[in-house]
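Materials and Methods. Structural model of Toluene efflux pump membrane transporter TtgB. The 137-residue sequence of Toluene efflux pump membrane transporter TtgB from Grimontia celer was retrieved and submitted for structure prediction as follows.
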Amino acid sequence: MVIPLGVIGAAGAIYLRGLQNDVYFQVALLTIIGLSSQNAILIVEFAEAAYRRGEDVWTAATEGARLRLRPIIMTSLAFIVGTLPLALSSGAGANSRISIGTGIVGGTLTATVLAIFFVPLFFVIVRRLFPKRPIED
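The predicted structure was written out as tokens:
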């Protein structure tokens, strides 16, 4: 549910820079899928743990997002700063680096900002649609 947020950001960044949807952009999309999935899994894992402890679904979702906010922000910012030279490169072969870097920077930025808010919301929606609590031993 969170992967389209990163893909939209990557596609928007590529569009704004006037680049094409080439194989290098596809590599950037694979990277965005991995990072946005990882961030969502971290939030849901902590929210699920709080939910299993007996918290209500909304409190569990906000606690999961609150506990994982700093690690997600730090990981995403480090990744963005690490790929920024790709997006701003020049010289021979720069088009491939620019395509990868722009897609990753735009997608990571969008996925991080939006996932912090949407993943807990999706957790609440899914838990309300399927309210069955797991059986504890």
